[in-house]
Recover the amino acids of this structure.
């Protein structure tokens, strides 16, 4: 079990790893070794995630989410397979930690009487400044 937060833990069997060849520079080494990691995690069917966290996680995943609800994370920045695995897992766990935080609900408030008066006073002042810029009338 991987402990994500004090209340959320996911089983290692829920995470599927596959290794592919990394793109980019690296010479002959990059052509021979499959060092890039493709990490797949089924957020929709994970028993370790509460339903609200899974919904927020799928929204946060964005383009990394497939139509089946599987999150795919590709890590290929490091030269070693082991470091790419660690990086991909850490990115997944960080995504789950972000989804575990409940967003604060905004409670709408009414403006105070003093703030309304300040707003109207500033509007009057601005109006007088602008009217002072106009051409004198024919009075």
């Amino acid at each position: 079990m991987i402990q994500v937060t004090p209340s959320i833990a996911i089983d290692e069997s829920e995470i599927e790893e596959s290794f592919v060849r990394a793109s980019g520079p690296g010479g002959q080494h990059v052509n021979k070794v499959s060092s890039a990691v493709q990490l797949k995690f089924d957020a929709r069917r994970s028993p370790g995630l509460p339903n609200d966290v899974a919904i927020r996680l799928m929204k946060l995943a964005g383009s990394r989410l497939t139509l089946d609800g599987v999150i795919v994370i590709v890590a290929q920045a490091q030269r070693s397979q082991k470091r790419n695995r660690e990086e991909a897992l850490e990115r997944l766990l960080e995504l789950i930690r972000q989804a575990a935080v409940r967003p604060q609900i905004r409670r709408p408030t009414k403006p105070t009487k003093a703030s309304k008066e300040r707003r109207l006073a500033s509007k009057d002042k601005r109006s007088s400044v602008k009217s002072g810029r106009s051409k004198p009338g024919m009075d």
Observations:
- Strands lie at 2-3, 9-10, 15-20, 36-42, 70-75.
- The first helix runs from residue 28 to 32.
- The chain has a mean pLDDT of 81.
- The chain is about 40% helix and 15% strand.
